[in-house]
Structure formats: C-alpha cells, structure tokens
Design goal:
about 280 residues; alpha/beta; Rossmann fold; two-stranded parallel sheet; 8 helices; 9 strands; about 15% strand
C-alpha cells in the first residue's frame, strides 16, 4: 500500500489542531485524502485554522472541546463517529510545555500539566477504543516527546507526562495487536511550534520572557510528513527527526558514557541559566 493511500477517505480527529504539530498533521492528512475533524478549545482559533485549510472543502470540520474535560472528549469522539459513520484515526496531540526548577514547581503546576498532557490522552483512548473494537479497526496516534524516552533536566513535569504517554501507547499496541487496532506514539525532538512561547501557567516558558524557537528546531510541516509516513507503516515509536535523536536515545538506553556526560553537562548549563533567570535554549 502506498503511504498516502493509508489515509484516503479516513475519518480522523486531531486534538490541539489549531497550531503547531496538530495543525501540520491536519494539513498533511488532508493532503493525503483524509477527512479531518480539527479539535481545539478556543472557537476562534480553531475556526481560523480550519479557514486556512478551506481549499479542502468538506474534508475539513471543527470541534470545540477542552481535552482536560472527560465528558467533552467523550462527546466529541462519539459525535464524530456518529456523524461520519466511523472513526478511523485519533491523534491525541494537545499538550503544553514546562521548563521549571523542580523546587519552584507547585502542586497546581503538576496538576495542570498532567491534566493536559496525560489525562487528555487517557480520555481520548478511553472513548475511542470501544468504538474501534466494535468496527474492528482503528489507529490511535499519541503525541509524546523525545523527553518521554530520554529524561532532560529541568523538564521533570513535562517528562513525567510524556513517559506516561509512551508507556500507555506501547502497552496498548501489544494488547490490541490481535484485535485490528494500531497504536503509535510520536516522540518529537525540538520542533518549530508555539509550544516554545508559553508554559503551563500561560506565561513564557523561559524566566526572562524570551519566546525564541531553538535555532536547530525541525520544521513542523516536515515533522508531520515524517510522522505520517511512519504511522502508515504501523510503526510503534516514531522519533522525529530520526537523526540524531535516535542515536541519542540508543546511547541513553545502552548507558553510553558519552551520552551520560552530555546529559550531565546539559543539566549543569540549564541550571546555571535558570538560576540567572535567562533562557537555556
């Protein structure tokens, strides 16, 4: 099967679809022939994003829902399946970043990021799996992070949620392998998206208010293309971009001394920057 054919006439929901990876995935899915329901909690932002893709006509739909609210996620998924007659793919993509010193993070910070990055994925999977089991097919794609495979210093809150997403997705991939359901988890490295502009409290991610995207950040549209190519192959863990991120992951898993030193040096540099109140990107 051609990779683009995998998406032709598929009914897809993408959460966090009004910007960043979610928007890029929505656009690329449309380009590959899918019908996309773009989900976001801000009506104006979702409508604007969908309007930018209006050339795709009735392939584009919008859903207004807050992914941290279980009942809203449940309704969005059930209503979409009822309207379209099926649900082929769910992209649990909505998320928020964090770059805090552990000792300055509040319990409310923990609750906010877990609700947004982890519970939202659980809500989506919980609602979609019964529908997909009933129809005998479906593919759920959850967005984690390279920080869900390699633990970066000063991203403990973020990393916890992304490790959870990776573990959940991989476990379900094997659990439902004989039931016609597929699961993939996207682990992006540094991607050029608005996630760099604000953290879990709605304020800039960095203490000095800087909203700079890292110079080496990978373009979101390329990340979407790479991701969908691998999803069509039913790959489980999808690292984007693959190099050098995959080498770093292998080094960490194997306990490579060079990788260990790199992570320790990164921790030192980041602490020095954060304690001075400046960006470490």
């Amino acid at each position: 099967m051609d990779q683009n054919d995998y998406y032709k006439d598929k009914i897809c929901i993408v959460t966090g679809a009004n910007s960043g990876i979610g928007y890029a995935l929505s656009e690329e899915l449309l380009n590959r022939g899918a019908t996309v329901y773009m989900l976001g909690r801000n009506p104006e932002k979702v409508a604007k994003a969908a309007g930018q893709l209006a050339t795709h006509g009735d392939q584009v739909h919008t859903i207004v829902a807050d992914v941290t609210k279980q009942e809203q996620v449940q309704k969005a998924i059930e209503d979409t399946a009822a309207e379209a007659g099926k649900l082929d793919m769910l992209f649990n993509n909505a998320g928020v970043g964090s770059a805090k010193l552990f000792e300055t993070a509040t319990l409310e910070d923990w609750k906010t990021i877990i609700d947004t990055n982890l519970w939202s994925v659980i809500y989506g999977v919980h609602a979609a799996v019964p529908l997909m089991l009933k129809q005998g097919s479906g593919h759920i794609v959850n967005t984690a992070s390279l920080a869900g495979l390699i633990p970066p210093a000063f991203q403990a809150l973020y990393s916890l949620t992304k490790y959870g997403v990776v573990g959940l997705t991989e476990s379900l991939r094997y659990e439902y392998a004989e039931k016609g359901l597929n699961f993939s988890v996207i682990c992006p490295a540094e991607i050029a998206t608005p996630i760099w502009s604000k953290g879990i409290d709605g304020k800039p991610l960095m203490p000095n208010g800087e909203q700079k995207v890292p110079d080496n950040a990978y373009p979101a549209d390329k990340a979407a293309c790479d991701t969908l190519d691998r999803v069509a192959e039913r790959k489980g863990i999808i690292i984007v971009p693959e190099e050098p991120s995959t080498d770093l992951w292998r080094g960490y898993v194997l306990g490579d001394k060079i990788t260990e030193e790199l992570l320790l040096n990164m921790a030192h540099d980041r602490r020095a920057a954060l304690e001075k109140g400046v960006s470490y990107f």
